[in-house]
Amino acid sequence: MPLVCAHTTLMLPEAIVIESLLEAHGIRFALAGKDIISQCPQFNILFGGISFLVDEDDLETVQSLIADVETVPGYASIESAGFERRPVRNAILAFAMLLIGAPFPFWYRGSGLRENA
After folding, report:
1. Which of 14, 59, 69, 106 is the most exposed place for a label (fewest CB within 10 A)?
2. Is the pTM above the cut of 0.85?
3. d(Cα 112, Cα 18) in Å, to the nearest integer?
4. Sheet holding 29-32, edge to edge
5. DSSP 3-state of 53
6. What is the mean pLDDT of each run of 10 residues along the chain (117 residues)?
7. What pLDDT is stored for residue 30 in this prediction?
8. Rounded to 10 degrees, what is the CA torsion of 20, 21, 26, 29?
9. How does DSSP classify residue 27?
10. CA gap 74, 103 in Å, rounded
């Protein structure tokens, strides 16, 4: 039976929780992208995140299980909000991280994270 994509996430902790949920309900699935994302998180967006592939017969069940969760306060992280505010700067930063594997901390100087002395 062909596998279909039931859910895709960019967050490894979310993928681990969904993986546990599906295992607890005895649903067979395959994960695409979890290994590379856990080894190299900077490639997350490049590879399209982590996808859950399930049988066509289980698709509705899986989607209802995943959708049957409460919203978590603060789920939109500071990092994702910051990325959306400065997309050009963060695209350059992501490219630099791919090249040298390290962020440029001086770009975060004015972010208001310093304590007032």
Report:
1. 106
2. no
3. 35
4. 3-9, 50-55, 29-32
5. strand
6. 86 88 92 82 78 92 80 57 72 76 56 52
7. 92
8. -70
9. -
10. 24
